[in-house]
Predict the structure of Stearoyl-[acyl-carrier-protein] 9-desaturase 6, chloroplastic-like.
Amino acid sequence: MQTTSFSQFNIPSIVWASPPPTTTMLCGKTTSTRRLSPPNAVASSTSRHQVTHSMPPEKLEIFKSLEPWVFENILPFRKPVEKCWQPIEFLPDPSQGPEHFEEEVRALRQRVLGLSDEYFVMLVGNMLTEDALPTYQTAINTFDGVRDETGSSPCPWAIWTRAWSAEENRHGDLLRTYLYLSGRVDMLMVEKTLQYSIGAGIDIGVENNPYMGFVYTSFQERATNLTHGNMAKLAIEGGDPVLARICGTIAADEKRHENAYTKIIEKLLEIDPNTTMIAIAYMMKKRITMPLHLMYDGQDPNIFKHFSAIIQKQGVYTSRDYVEILEFFIRRWKLEKLEGLTTGEARRAQDFVCKLPRKIKRFENRDNILDSHPVKLSWIFNKQVCV
């Protein structure tokens, strides 16, 4: 089966965190290991210095006291398993017999012929992000005061994390199976990339601090909702309504999860506005990075930057989206009108966050973040798909 390396693009990544020096990333048969110049806005050229357990011990009681509230206000965002969709509902069903199964696979492969290689790069990146779920559940279970202490804790914070993980787990399963059946990508390289990436872990800079952690999850769930929604629109344009429905369904899950995490921050702003406002500002200063920013395939140190470049070039997730998400949370959490801030640090944090969207827009316009930088991506594609 003929394969080809991916083509060049001109837009640098806008939101990424560089891997540590020992971490590298590429797929298969690459011809270039050229490092990109970092973009002019929201980016860091080195790994951040990790800080741990930054939340004062006395704040643990706040999260303990919120457990009844979590039972009543957050656990209802779970969906009963019997009412949840499952991946097989969107896929060729082998239980219907071999002839019917083969016919459905051929139909799937025919549909994806109308989708570009760029689309499949983005779909692989989204699948890897969803399928690296063990990393994210582990990360949430490092948050002080809300972690699952036993792996099956009856604490409502832990119940939510396990339920969230169980719902999210279906996303990667579905996308990976669809990619496998499509015949459009080198699944061996995809699977190696997933294993490397889970092994590399995650560094989102939340310091085991649930204030920061829930700011991150609020932002990230909204970003993934938007990304999957845009992928659904592109799938319709490319002639695959089934894949459009898959991406749209995943986006709906992300929206529901966003609502849960956003509600947690609303509650924290109500009962502890100073600490919560400072946490929001800290996360905005650090920049919200994509969860799989340490994506690695064993060879290419730039693979996440390449993926980020393509999703921006294709309009699936851009610097403007980042700003719009920030503006949304400023409105949703009523940060400009937030009362009860009693410290100078908290008031400075409020001022910083509320002015940040305008600053990013000015910065982007001044330095033209969308200027031309050659970008290569070397995921290997199967160009001849038997239908």
In short: The beta strands are 3-4, 16-17, 43-44, 381-382. The two ends are 13 Å apart (CA to CA). Residues 1-46, 367-381, 383-387 have pLDDT under 50 and may be disordered. Residues 42 and 260 are 27 Å apart (CA to CA).
